[in-house]
Amino acid sequence: MRCALLLTFAATLGATAVHAATPSVEELQRQLEAQQRQLEAQQARLDALAAELDQETPSISAASSFGGYGELHYNALDSKDQIDFHRFVLYFARDFDAELRFFSEFELEHSLAGEGKKGEVELEQAYVEMDLDAATRLRAGLFLLPIGILNETHEPTTFYGVERNPVENGIIPSTWWEAGVALAGRFGSSGFAYDLALHSGLKLDGSFAIRSGRQKVSEAVADDLATTARLKYTGRPGLELAASATYQPDVTQGLVAGAGAGTLLSAHAAYASGPLTARALWAQWRLAGAAPAAAGKDRQDGYYAEGGWKLTPMLGAFVRYSVWDNGGLGATERAQTNLGINWWPHPNVVFKLDLQDQGKSVDDDGVNLGVGYRF
After folding, report:
1. What's the pTM?
2. Which residue has the higher pLDDT, 25 or 308?
3. Which CATH number is 253's domain given?
4. Per the domain annotation, does 357 fall within a domain?
5. Rounded CA separation 345/337 (Å)
6. pLDDT tier at 17 (50, 70, 90 boundaries)?
7. Are 351 and 337 in contact, with CB atoms under 8 Å apart?
8. Rounded to whole angstroms, how far apart are CA atoms 128 and 131?
9. Partners of 286 in the beta sheet?
10. Residue 35 domain flag
11. How many domains does the chain have?
12. pLDDT over 90 for what percent of the chain?
């Protein structure tokens, strides 16, 4: 009897233990749901941490871009025999979203910069651009002025000839950048567009040399800001017509007594149809005041006309005639004819050769060779 009771007690204990070690279906369900909630909470914390890291250290993505261009020149002229890696330029840009973006251009000129060296390291563009609506953009920062043909678009694969034309070098001091704010927009589907900018200006000395008056936004004196406006028409395929005006109340920023306002007017036409391209540009500075007049620098102007023809998709020939006058006492007008070819083994790589004949007040004849690229 006692043995039977002990066996019954042991069996009862074993059944209880087995029941305690094996949870019910409801208990298993509750455990799984609790574990799922823990996993979801951990995933949410990981997602929040990833988003925070992305905001603090954004990576290069489809919204970021990188590019640049460069050009090597060889000039065998009356004035010099010289080889020079003229420009090495890098672009960095990022689209923050569909309406807000950043663009910059960083340049090394003449291969080597530093104290006593001939080159320069320059920041030519660094601006934020915002779409105000479908037809209007606001730009703020350091940007190229909307003047002429080459000032905004000057990559070597986009123009004929080794050197940039002398009118858009000596009269329009390309490349010309300033700091400020600008609006750009278009008038519906009419083909007309406009630019309006308020920006830093030149600081000419007593020589009234336009190109050397660029301050390049390096602790630039800003006693007298400048304004630039442009109207452009591109309503027909291949055609661009534009006129611009820049005005600065004092182009010497108070440096030269007897100097006053400076006004730059320019107009150009550019046309491309199949293998044919044609360009023409006129630009003129008028400097007010007795000091520029006494130096013969109160009027500085120039013009050029150019025709190009693609002999094949990879080979093009051109001729360009330029006349310009940076003023001064005596005969100062110059004229130059360039005749040459461009060879594009790839749309983003170009080899150039042109013959130069410069006359009137200065003779400077010879040959120019160059290679350029963009990416």
Report:
1. 0.82
2. 308
3. 2.40.160.10
4. yes
5. 26
6. very low
7. no
8. 10
9. 263, 299
10. no
11. 1
12. 82
